Structures are given as C-alpha cells and as structure tokens.
Amino acid sequence: MNRRVVVNVLLVVAVVALFAVPLLVDGGASEYGGTDAAVTEELEADGYTPWFDSLFSPSGEVESGLFALQAAVGGGVLGYVLGRLRGRRLAQEPEASP
Asked: In the predicted model, is pLDDT for residue 97 greater than 70?
C-alpha cells in the first residue's frame, strides 16, 4: 500500500470515529432531539399559542418522501444552473491553436 491509500484509510477512520466516539461515550444516557422540538416546548411553556394550525400534516413516510423530492428537485436545479454556466464559459473561450 502506498502513502495515499494509507492517508485515505486514516481519514475515513477519523471521520467514523468523530461520529461514533460521542455516541459510545454517552452510552445512550441523553436524548438527542432537534432544535425545533426544543423551541416548541420552550414557547409552549411560556404560554405562546400558534396563530393557526397546519392545513396538511402528512405521515412520517410521506413527509420523508416529500423532503427527498424537494432535495432532488433542488439538486437538479443546482446541477442545471452550474452546467449552464460552465457551458456558457466554455463557449466563450477561444479554442487554443496548436
């Protein structure tokens, strides 16, 4: 194995350790929650009531599917724009003469 492979393997191990070590050290004692839930609980404790209720509350599977669809559409739009800009730049560059 050459040096490049060893460095790549060590980087992958370091990234995995970065995520695994805090979970192992904690031992499942704490409850990991999102900031949305924490803020909602804090606001409700202060007596805040929302102005309106949601019109559409999808189930968990539908919600994750809609999120994935949103990510796919966003990725497609970003890829199209970047490809269009790169194509425009390549069309403007004069070809190098041999």
From this structure: no
Sequence-ordered list of residues with C-beta below 8 angstroms from that of 66, at least 6 positions apart, any chain: 58
19: which 2 tokens?
């995520």
Total Cβ atoms within 10 A of residue 40: 13
Q: How far apart are the first and last CA of the chain?
A: 40
Lowest-confidence pick of 12-26, 33-47, 57-71: 33-47
What are the angstrom distances between the C-alpha of 71 and each of 65, 79, 91?
10, 12, 30
Instruction: Kindly report the pTM of this predicted structure.
Output: 0.48
d(CA 31, CA 26): 10
d(CA 57, CA 38): 20
Mean pLDDT, the chain, rounded, equals 88
Distant-in-sequence, close-in-space partners of 58: CB < 8 Å, separation ≥ 6: 66
45 class by beta-carbon count within 10 Å (0-12 exposed, 13-18 middle, 19+ buried)? exposed
